[in-house]
Amino acid sequence: MLKNQPLTELDKKVMYWESKGKEVPTRELVLSQEQIEGVRRSGVVNTGVLDEVARQIHAGMNTLEIDKICMDYCAQHGATPACLGYEGFPKSVCTSINEVVCHGIPKEEDVLEEGDIINVDFTTILDGYYSDASRMFIIGKTLPEKEQLVRVAKECLEVGMEAAKPYCFVGDIGNAIQKYAHKYHYGVVRDLCGHGVGLKFHEEPDVAHFGRKGTGMLLVPGMVFTIEPMINMGTWEVFIDADDPYGWEVISADELPSAQWEHTFVMTEHGVEILSH
Asked: What sign results for the dihedral spanned by CA atoms 266, 90, 231, 190?
């Protein structure tokens, strides 16, 4: 709410929920139409990066080659990879194979093989606006169990998207995802979450992929955030790879495969709209 300005309907609804003791967004988390358009333009490039990866990815290539694809596409479109150098991350993209849940670092020695599943996660900065998305890729033909995991992880994202309504709560999203994943006896990673994005790489709210309805931050039109459930074939628990000198790579605790899909969304008066996928 801005001082000396008349209350909008949005202000009134936010104040109502705040009076009920709920966590509500600050004005800074509600983007203007101009800012949303900036994120949308960034999202077009971000989606284009993943489209280009989809066109070129194949068995026998190494993940350093994926990094080059992403770097080259960004450079050709006047954008910057947000991951490069972020808190010491050494590459432009995260490439997470099989039991690597997220934050896998591209390496020449990581060669994709028939049957692998891999998550490619990329964040674009264009004109100061951030967009973030990831996709799963199945290399050739894989085991039916892996194929199902990849499919259900995408369905978890879709279930979370359907649960994200204006003036709902972050916990509504997590609750829907958790219930769906548990039908398949999969673990929903709890140590990592979706997040606000747009003007920064990571900002409020934290979007957990498990939880109770009516908890977490109120979601209102104009907020931009990711939903990115990490779904493990076994336990939800994870650990950091001790052999990773950068301390980034997250692995499922039982070393069973993991899958993740991520979109950037803007909340509207009618539900979420995808800005990058």
From this structure: negative
| Residue owning tokens 């979450």 | 193
Retrieve residue 12's tokens.
Answer: 């009134």
By C-alpha distance, which of 228, 219, 272 is closest to 30? 219
Q: Is the pTM of this model over 0.90?
A: yes
Per-residue pLDDT of 23-81, as tens digits, reads 999 999 999 999 999 999 999 999 999 999 999 999 999 999 999 999 999 999 999 99
Q: Measured between alpha carbons, how far is 253 from 105 in angstroms, rounded to an integer?
A: 18
Shortest CA distance to 164 belongs to which of 217, 233, 101?
217
Number of other CB atoms surrounding residue 80 within 10 Å: 18
Q: d(Cα 3, Cα 189) in Å, to the nearest integer? A: 41
Rounded to an integer, what distance in angstroms lies between the CA atom of residue 108 and that of residue 112? 10
Tokens 């947000």: give the residue.
Answer: 82
